[in-house]
Amino acid sequence: MVIGTWQSAPGEVSTAVAHALSVGYRHIDCAYVYGNEDEVGRGLAEAFKSGKVKRENVFITTKLW
Q: Are the C-beta atoms of 26 and 50 separated by less than 8 Å?
């Protein structure tokens, strides 16, 4: 399953990413133009720190434009 971060409300992205990973999502869709890379990173870090998911099991996609 994939969670997208486009048009996510500021302040909600890191929580959404961490929660999604904790319940089984393994694909994070993001892009520089979404303007929420810092929050995506914080959510990823939280999930990895919890030990529930390892980086090597997560797919992170982005776009170039």
A: no
| Rounded Cα distance, 65 and 56, in Å | 26
- pLDDT tens-digit profile of 6-53? 998 889 999 999 999 999 999 999 999 999 999 999 999 999 999 999
Query: What stretch of H or E contains 45?
Result: helix 37-50
- Residues 29 and 20: their CA atoms lie apart, in Å, by 12
Write down the pTM of the prediction: 0.90
The single-letter DSSP state of residue 27 is E
Q: How far apart (Å, rounded) are the C-alpha atoms in residues 44 and 59?
A: 11
Which residues are known to be catalytic? 34
